[in-house]
Design goal:
Length: about 450
């Protein structure tokens, strides 16, 4: 009787393992023996071998073994790329089945990457919410896509969003199951990266998904007035922006009901007699470009300090913690009315050059019209709002600064020389000319401006 025996170049085990990579091989040997189990030493038979997994030379599952002329017939088995498969090898001699068979296990390789499965609907990842944990599943795989079931290592999870939960994890039998991750930064193209702690250069990044903001938070949402100092005349306006943010400071982009209220704090420099403002507010509307809510505060001739408060949501509405104020002031206008030598008539600090006769300070609205003698800007200036009218030309020099917390309106000419600084917290508008020196002349605009 003859039967099959499986071997390799270095082993004669009856069960072999080769890497499931589509290229690893095991040599299959059919050895003829006599009834006393002695190896026969002559060839001349027809031997065909068969496999249910993997393939023989030429990519076939049935192969005529090569006669070695010494009682042995050989074939080369190549693995598949599926580590869950075990190939069973059978043979026929002269079309008669050999009663023996052998098996070859196709085994997994080393960890090469990870498969990250996000919560999804179909093939589209679900939208996640900032601060809300969500589960992920991760498999460790070899270079051929086989799960590496003996991987029980530690990994670090990072993100291009801000990750606050689920940063560290340990695999069990090659996988993480329902591991919860928490992200707190909204992002239209967020992703996760899994990095093996103890394996060199083994990491994988997930497909992109959306993280949306959580519900608006009254303590991070803001109301911004721009500018915060305007003139007491019809047509003077301040843009009021309502910016809703969640507890993680993400901009809330879902449109919800918002409302504003206006309260007078002072009138003509005195406490308000009744809290009723003379200025008016328009109904807030959604600004799709800046992605916030916009209202317009319109001044009257009344000098007053007003407060703008706001709420969001349906009844009961939630009060936004911070409010904004707008100072509606009688402007201080440059006249160059001081007598004496030219230096006196161009002196910013001389009250006689202003109407009313007071030097503008922080929070004041200063206007420079086209008059004979214009101020020399060789000092540091801090104002609420600053207007340079058509025909007026000013130059800041001497390493000084102009700091305007509200609006800067330039219809004339403003030049800031080297080593000077101009800062505005409100709008910078006008039809005039602005220039800055070539060496360290510095302009900075701060504030929300719809951001």
């Amino acid at each position: 009787m003859h039967w099959i025996h499986l071997t390799t170049l270095t082993s004669r085990l009856t069960q072999l393992q080769i890497l499931a990579n589509g290229s690893s091989t095991s040599e299959i040997t059919v050895q003829f023996r006599d009834e006393f189990s002695n190896n026969l030493l002559s060839g001349g038979e027809t031997v065909e071998v068969f496999t249910d997994f993997g393939s023989f030379t030429g990519g076939v599952n049935a192969y005529m073994a090569v006669d070695q002329g010494d009682g042995r017939y050989r074939a080369l088995l190549t693995s598949s790329q599926n580590a869950s498969e075990t190939a069973t090898i059978t043979a026929e001699v002269n079309s008669t089945s050999v009663p023996d068979n052998a098996t070859v296990d196709f085994t997994q390789g080393e960890v090469a990457s990870f498969i990250i499965s996000l919560p999804s609907t179909g093939s589209t990842p679900d939208v996640q919410t900032a601060g809300v944990p969500f589960p992920i599943n991760v498999q460790a795989i070899d270079a051929y896509g086989n799960q590496v079931t003996d991987f029980n290592g530690d990994v670090t999870i990072s993100s291009n969003s801000n990750i606050t939960g689920g940063i560290n994890a340990t695999f069990v039998n090659g996988e993480l199951t329902d591991h919860e991750v928490t992200l707190t930064q909204s992002n239209t193209a967020a992703n996760l990266t899994i990095t093996a702690n103890d394996l060199f250069n083994v990491e994988t990044t997930s497909q992109d998904f959306v993280v949306q903001a959580n519900d608006p938070d009254p303590n991070t949402s803001v109301i911004v007035a721009n500018p915060s100092v305007i003139q007491n005349q019809g047509g003077s306006e301040s843009v009021i922006s309502i910016i809703l943010r969640d507890a993680f400071n993400n901009r809330v982009l879902d449109q919800i009901p918002v409302s504003l209220s206006l309260t007078q704090i002072e009138e003509n420099g005195n406490p308000s007699p009744d809290g009723i403002a003379n200025a008016s507010l328009s109904t807030p509307t959604w600004n799709s470009t800046q992605q916030n809510y916009i209202s317009t505060l319109s001044a009257t001739n009344t000098v007053e300090l007003v407060e703008i408060s706001g709420t969001f949501g349906n009844s009961p509405a939630t009060q936004i913690a911070a409010s904004a104020t707008v100072d509606i002031v009688n402007p201080i206008v440059w006249t160059s009315g001081a007598g004496g030598p030219p230096g006196s008539r161009t002196d910013w600090t001389n009250p006689e050059n202003w109407n009313p006769q007071t030097v503008p300070q922080d929070g004041d609205y200063a206007i420079i019209p086209d008059v004979g003698d214009l101020p020399v800007l060789d000092l540091n200036i801090t104002l609420g709002s600053f207007e340079i009218q058509t025909g007026a030309s000013l130059t800041l020099f001497g390493g000084n600064f102009i700091d305007v917390s509200g609006a800067l309106i330039v219809d004339g000419i403003l030049d800031i020389e080297d080593n000077t600084q101009l800062t505005t917290g409100g709008g910078f508008t006008g039809s005039g000319t602005f220039t800055a020196g070539s060496a360290n002349g510095y302009f900075r605009r701060w504030g929300y401006h719809g951001q």
